[in-house]
Amino acid sequence: MIQSMTAFASRTGHADGATWAWEVRSVNARGLDLRLRLPDGIDGLEADIRAAFTKAIKRGNVSLTLRLTMNDTAQNLSLDEAQLDRVLGALDVIQERAFTMGVTLGQPTTADVLNQRGVVQNAGNEGPNAEIVAAIKADIGPLLHDLVNMREREGQSLNAIIATQLSDIAGNIANAEAAIIERRPEAEKALKTAMERVLGNTDLDPDKLAQEMAALAVKTDVTEEIDRLKAHVTAASELLEVAQKEYHPVGRKLDFLSQEFNREANTLCSKAQYTKLTGIGLELKTLIDQMREQIQNVE
Q1: 144-155, pLDDT tens digit by residue?
Q2: Integer Cα distance of 167 and 118 in angstroms
Q3: Do 113 and 33 lie in a common domain?
Q4: By the number of CB atoms within 10 A of the CB, which of 134, 200, 208, 226 ranks highest?
């Protein structure tokens, strides 16, 4: 099944006095780029996330954020008495020095002392407990499931759009073939005029004459371009069909084909020498560009 590279998922949870919130966003990219913003103190979390995501997703720029909040029941305050003694001692030295120098200082409040670095510590500084870690890790699977579901829904829409665009391209190729037949009288007249001009040069040797005539014929012959365009339509349609049956990343192959589509359409326009055929070639280029914009989001 085709997946889009554009998706979003979020999830929240709580356990043992802790709450957390996940957010994951996916956009298009040439390969898989996982960018994680995770809280400290959860051993193995990054490895578990990377293992799960790389198994389910092959392409996309994926940004994942986990915000963890430990409330008072999970993160009690503790007093570092040794640090408190050091702070009080320093304050006493400062007061004595100020008195000696005739400077009057205000008395520090209890809050002033507690705000000094290291005096008050959180009992949870060692990180969340095992129950919280287990609950957080249990969210990885459901979060990834939600993200992949959205990528698949978006992929279904992309499949329908690209299939319609391929049908429109095939229709324009058929129109181009009809225009080539209409162009034939004018092409024959132009070739005849060119031949008369070339033959009028009596100094031209036979080998050079043959080269000139071959070049004139090749210059307006778009048979190969039409054949290749048809082949590209078939190949792209087959890729979509295969991807519909099972998970199969086809974005890169479709992108390559869209470049080849554009190359043939450009050549068709340059060889057209017929207003109607040129118009069809330009319409083809527009359709191909529109299709390629959609393909950029296919995994």
Answers
A1: 999 999 999 999
A2: 70
A3: no
A4: 226
